[in-house]
């Protein structure tokens, strides 16, 4: 079941905005500021988990670790779930792209703890997606793919002995929904105009 966020939407964009009072705003409200205040909106920072890179907001020259930004998103999702379910949420299964290495997985676990989650095992996104649709039947193999805004992730997922696992995976950080959107604009809308 998809739990709607505080705005009633079934998803929360991975975006943060540092407002004029230097409060961190997450999700759709942050993403809506991309055009009006682009130097103070950060997106795509999940890719930088575990890199040690600090990101900067222009307004105050304030820097942020991607782990802290992900923690802010998780904290927001946790608060939405707590409100919707009517009880305090302290445990959650988190999903991570299958391309995440040990440093990125560790940084995601740290972000979960910073967000107040006590127990948060990580599950690869292709497995989570396969399980959400019932998973492949015994001995079957599925190709599961995911277009994020800025990346493409594909995995072969199988079930053997009742266990669902990723057999192989590949990703491309230069191909994603953003690039597809612009190709549609370039090849369909621009010629039409």
Describe what you observe in this structure.
- With 193 residues, this protein is an alpha+beta fold.
- It is built from five helices and ten strands.
- It has a three-stranded antiparallel sheet with strand order 2-1-3.
- Strand 8 and strand 9 (152-160) form a beta hairpin.
- The longest helix has 20 residues, at 66-85.
- The radius of gyration is 18 Å and the shape is globular.
- The model has no long low-confidence stretch (mean pLDDT 90).
What is the number of E strands?
10
Q: Compute the average pLDDT.
A: 90
Please trace the helix and strand order, writing H or E for each element: EEHEEEHEHEHEEEH
Q: Strands across the major sheet, in which order?
A: 2-1-3
Compact description:
The protein is α+β, with helices and mostly antiparallel strands and 193 residues long.
Characteristic key phrases:
193 residues, 3-stranded antiparallel beta sheet, alpha+beta
